[in-house]
Design goal:
Blueprint lengths: L18 E7 L2 E9 L7 E6 L23 E6 L22 H16 L6 E6 L1 H13 L3 E5 L10 H10 L20 H6 L5 E6 L9 H9 L8 E3 L3 E5 L6 H20 L40 E2 L2 H5 L6 E7 L2 E8 L7 E5 L24 E5 L3 H4 L16 H15 L7 E6 L1 H13 L3 E5 L10 H12 L9 H8 L1 H6 L5 E7 L3 H15 L6 E3 L3 E6 L13 H12 L16
Parallel strand pairs: 3-4, 3-5, 5-6, 6-7, 7-9, 10-11, 13-14, 13-15, 15-16, 16-17, 17-19
Antiparallel strand pairs: 1-2, 2-4, 8-9, 11-12, 12-14, 18-19
Helix pairs in contact: 1-2, 9-10
Length: 591
Amino acid sequence: MFDATARHEPDDLGGLEEGSYQARIGELQIDFTLSQTDHAAKRLFVILAGQQRADAEWPLEQLPRKFTNLPGTTVLVNDPTLALTARHAIGWFFGSREQSGIVSLSLLVDSLRQRLGVDRHRIYIVGEASSGLAAIQLGCKIGDCSVISINPHTDIRLYNRAYVADFFAHLAVSDPSVQSADLEFNTRLSAVDALRDSQETRVMYYEGQHNADKPNRHFQHFCREFGIDEDEQLSDLGTLQVIRSNDAAEAPVGFRQLMSRAIKLAERTAAKPVRSTAVEEVAPAARRSGPNPFLTKLAPPDTLVAHPWGVCGSLKELDSTSIQNGRFVVRHRGGEFQCLLNIKPDSNKLFVMLCGATNRRFAHPDFHRVSWAPEIPGSTLYVADPTLGVTRKLSLAWYVGTRDNDWGTGLAEMVRAVAGKLGLGTDSVITYGSSGGGFAALMTAARLGDATAVAINPQTHVLQYHPKNVRTMLLSNFGTSEYEELPPSMVSQRFDAIRAFRDAPKAKLLYLQNVNDIHHYEEHYLPFCEKLGLPIYGGVKDGHLETWPYKDAHGHRGEPPALVPDILAKSIALSDIRVVVSTRQRTDAIF
């Protein structure tokens, strides 16, 4: 029996050899077969066997021919769901009512990855039809890995209704969304919803030729949700590539081409040389001295779970309201801003904590870093993105608003009002966020004119981010997925943090960038530094604009906890600076 819950040192195979294994994770038993063609290649290919055929033994122990001789270690994984419901031929790796098969499978894959010394970005997950859905879900759960999904199901609810009803009845699953005709958000049922929550997973979706008289509902649904033309032979959305074959008979050859393409994309990107060689690697927590409460999970404030103390219908109403600790709502510029305030009367700083990508399994509002509030050296205002309260089809919207409503400007106006209620000027405001929240921090500080932005691995221009995520947001909020259909003035004012900061010479900045986050380093950090004349390798310009590149193996994440005390101390010091600019420079906040 293979212990998939144990932690392993890289390269410690621990007696793991070619052959068949069983792993027990909770109530699920996962049967898998391991084979190695080239262990030195340090790649792990995960082939999902999702269908029990009447003419074949189960569990499968032999790879289908087209999946053999892959350049690395290959693991063939059988669907544990089929052991729970023997009369069903497919189970989508769903698991049981209480236990997710995908979560359990991710534990197994991570354990194998550690045993084999394989980095996550060199994991390749393959599935067809029902297991194609599971491949996407598993890839999104793992994160920085690659998926090849061949003619996949994209939502269990789009399969034969009678079969689905009987399948879930046998598992005693009574989730109402199973029978929902409008496909309510559910990452256990939908590859589309899983992919919406993913920022790093690279997916190649291969679709064979269909009978023109009987179009594939799964493919149509997927294309519609991501704004893809289903007649295009290739739709390249960066981390999502949809390839449609003109001849389904070419699938076996096509798989080799897809795999070669996936390997080239994943490993070429990861192998890009980073220009900064003098950047310090983040030290593990054990090697850092001094107390750091951010290294452990902190308890969130009690006010988080309380009902809002007020719902303000406008900024004017907020201005006439006695502000207090806890949750409140402000309706402004057509949006509903969900807020959480933690006041520290003895502090003269207001930290505005903004959200990046949000896991839609959690209810709105999902305030990021909310447990930090007691430890932050200032009052804290958490603000959720209004878009995420309108639709569950998005996990990231950058606070940019809709075609008719500029919620980024609305956010800055509301922050100005709250700071005023606390007796603070905007020069005492510190906006804080990472990734999409880092973009919002940059934009808000620039709009306030003299605030301080702390941005960790941010996007600096929304349209330079992964097209899959951007197009989905545009389709939902702006009625188009085509960049060219956006008014240039709107793009400049709402989507471009480089322009915003260039036009706000009194705004202060602490910009942290992980140089191992290749996309953000190359496509966002370098253009920002080059256009604003900031030191690429770290340093300070004009006394109030600081860059802080660092090395962390985890790629695109928030700040390493070990750095948080220094980040907060630096942000306070920057906020205390009063910037003087020449009369030739524009000093007004941008509204």
